[in-house]
Design the sequence.
């Protein structure tokens, strides 16, 4: 009987007395394992996209520019009408690039958005892009020379807007991106305050009266 007790005590001692073992107070939870030297920690951030050099897209067809951008690793791509007419670039092959949002030759992460200013193939690039009209100040922008579509987009959707053909032909203004504003009421700089707006317009290529 004494031999059995001694054997049990000896086995318990061997288990509890292993080098480095720290049983701690009775009933205490085990300490969490520390992360390995190469493991990720809670403060680690995912690595950003690798940088790449932005190509020169100016003069390219819009479709070719998009293909070239994707080959270089850029996939966040948009385009806009460089003439300020607010036209959609539906058939990219019918448009050419006049400007780009990130200068050629810059090295930027490949998840950087790239935006192309474009015109139709038969059109000339503007020396300077016409900015989109802005009503954030609460006052009427100067819509003259811009498209009816861009003017409508700048106004609140609840604005009462009337558009008249002032060429003398009394035509319906259907495709508003094809019409340029000749005059407006209220005048530029006037507080809008929910006022009705009237635009007098002709088609692009025609002269305002």
Sequence:
């Amino acid at each position: 009987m004494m031999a059995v007790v001694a054997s049990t005590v000896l086995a318990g001692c061997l288990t509890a007395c292993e080098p480095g073992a720290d049983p701690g107070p009775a009933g205490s939870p085990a300490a969490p394992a520390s992360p390995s030297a190469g493991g990720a920690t809670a403060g680690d951030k995912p690595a950003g996209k690798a940088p790449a050099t932005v190509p020169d897209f100016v003069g390219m067809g819009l479709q070719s520019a998009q293909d070239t951008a994707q080959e270089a690793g850029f996939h966040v791509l948009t385009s806009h009408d460089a003439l300020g007419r607010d036209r959609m670039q539906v058939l990219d092959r019918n448009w050419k690039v006049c400007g780009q949002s990130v200068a050629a030759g810059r090295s930027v992460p490949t998840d950087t958005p790239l935006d192309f200013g474009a015109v139709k193939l038969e059109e000339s690039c503007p020396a300077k892009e016409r900015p989109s009209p802005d009503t954030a100040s609460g006052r009427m922008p100067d819509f003259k020379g811009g498209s009816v579509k861009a003017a409508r987009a700048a106004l609140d959707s609840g604005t009462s807007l009337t558009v008249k053909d002032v060429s003398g032909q009394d035509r319906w203004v259907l495709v508003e991106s094809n019409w340029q504003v000749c005059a407006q009421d209220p005048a530029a700089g006037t507080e809008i305050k929910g006022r009705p707006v009237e635009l007098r317009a002709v088609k692009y290529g025609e002269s305002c009266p």
